[in-house]
Amino acid sequence: MAIVLGIETSCDETSVAIVRDRQVLSNIVSSQIEIHQQYGGVVPEIASRRHVEMVNWAIEQAMQEATLTWKEIDGIAATCAPGLVGALLVGVTAGKTLSLLHEKPFLGVHHLEGHIYASYLSEPSLQPPFLCLLVSGGHTSLIYVKACGHYETLGQTRDDAAGEAFDKVARLLNLGYPGGPVIDRLSKEGNSRAFPLPEGQVSLPEGGFHPYDSSFSGLKTAVLRLTQKLQQETDTLPIPDLAASFQDTVARALTKRTIACALNYGLNAIAIGGGVAANSSLRHHLQAAAHTHNLNVYFPPLKFCTDNAAMIACAAAEHLDRGHTSSLQLGVQSRMPISDVMKLYEVS
Ligand code: KG4
Ligand code: ZN
């Protein structure tokens, strides 16, 4: 059971954690949300600079909280793809430096594999195969989890990610950034059936619709058009009704595709990951549909849904146990399909 120190700096959270197998010994997360809020989204240059300022502090805190010495650490991991290149470089450079300094193996981790491993942190008995619905600000994917390092993407978004759609709709309703939490909160006071909106199905050239892919940009445009129309008709926009109708449409669309995918592939467990997993409507619809079809659905606690280093260290710990390590020449990549995870490792 390897003890791994993991570093996550792919976007706007500087996080360092220490994990033994699937048990979290420490998980320090320093969020930059307040810094980026004034710009209405993440500014990559500012994110990188803030990671540089915070990463050493986070490493020290994680070591202190875990009450371990460097001798007891078996490996050092850092998210190396996908993400903001400058931001990833900070974590990977810190990880490689620690690896050289303390003579520990280094492991680069795919950010999405990390999100999959977040489910193991709260559900240590979960075992592949299962289906993972990954819904964050940058991703909307249905991933067939076959084994450690072996994944197949069965569905994805053709344009905006689910979280991105929440953020863009919040911006057009002047609700601030990030959009998901505020839309979720306002939806509780609104009527989700007030405005029918398109579910964002992806047409196939041969006719019909792709069963697992999504497209959220049409939905966002539909909310924009509706808002413009309502603005001409009334002085005050029915914000809670708009928020609830939008949120419910996204939640129903994701639920429909996820359940169809699990049933068609004969997978009876579904794990949810990414920041949008916090969404109350998505939780409600998925739990109800899973119950109807006798499927198990796992939502990690919020602290493991959003970006954190515990999930990165957890993925690395299993790779290390299997003899997988990365070269110190490993670079960072802004994009990388999850099916390429094993390219990050040399297998001993
Ligand atoms: O996974 P995450 O922390 O960062 C990455 O994008 O990797 O996800 C952030 C996204 C944002 O787009 C945010 O608006 C969304 O997750 N989000 C939510 C909720 N909480 C966060 N979306 C819907 N409902 C929520 N309660
Ligand atoms: Zn993420």
Mean pLDDT: 96
Bound molecules: 5'-O-[(R)-(carboxyoxy)(hydroxy)phosphoryl]adenosine, zinc ion
In percent, how much strand structure appears in the residues?
Answer: 15-25%
Let me know the CATH homologous superfamily of the largest domain: ATPase, nucleotide binding domain
Provide the CATH architecture of the largest domain.
2-Layer Sandwich
Largest beta-sheet characterization: 5 strands, mixed
Tertiary shape = globular
Strand order of the largest sheet: 3-2-1-4-5
Count every beta strand, where a strand is a DSSP E run of 2 or more residues.
Answer: 12
Q: Helical residue percent?
A: 40-55%
Total number of domains: 2
Distance between the termini: 17 Å
**Which residues sit in consecutive blocks of at least 5 with pLDDT less than 50?**
none
Structural class: alpha/beta
CATH class group of the largest domain: Alpha Beta
Round the Cα radius of gyration to an integer and report it.
Answer: 20 Å
**SS summary, helix count:** 11
The CATH topology of the largest domain turns out to be Nucleotidyltransferase, domain 5
